[in-house]
User: What shape does this take?
Amino acid sequence: MLSADRLSVRFGSKTALADVSLDVPAQKIVSVIGRSACGKTTLLRAFNRTNEMIAGARTTGTARFHGTDLYGRTVDPVEVRRRIGMIFQRATPFPKSVFDNIAFGPRAGGFAGDLHELAEEVLTSAGLWADVAGDLDAPALALSAGQQQQLCIARTLAVRPDVLLMDEPTASLDPAATARIESLVHSLKATYTVVIATHDLSQAARLSDMTAFLDAGELVEYSPTATLFTNPRTRQAEEYVTGRTS
Assistant: This one.
């Protein structure tokens, strides 16, 4: 579904990602772990071309989606960001109604179908329909933090992506809301490819099929999750997952 080949990202003179190569299989959950500033977010943003929105960013190497070079001259970055959606650490609902949050993207894309049917479909997929069905005109900002994150996921699903990139999607949530989001992510794997950047090693172990460990912008190890957590190939990965380094 996604692949990187010697993918590097620099911001001015700082190298945030260095020669990373990996393949993300379709309909799997891949976790990206590592200490702060190791390049997790930069890798996700390289796949949906949002690093280039930062002044001084420069991407080299290759990132592919369904075999197509994401940085090819004829590729529309807006279409890339639709097909490869991103969920951020803090929920970012628009200061509009629940319904208008869902309808915003499809309206902008010229969606000609029934927006209410679409809203019910994606809110159900995001596990939020039962909570909001009675009042889709309620303000999104009145929802709880966990519900706002579910709404942002539903809003992303409404534009029909193939991939969901999630950058620390539960970092600001309480344990109950975290469990709800994790259950949702697991259910989405049947339809979507999911890549999650997370500091929470137990979350990576619970959710993902594959795990990539980054350190100082470099890919140290990329293995099936069970292998990386129980029999890592590298000393750096072993020290990180056992807590001997942070």
About this structure: Residues 2-92+161-241 form a domain with the Rossmann fold fold (CATH 3.40.50.300). Residues 212 and 222 are 4 Å apart (CA to CA). The longest strand covers residues 14-24.
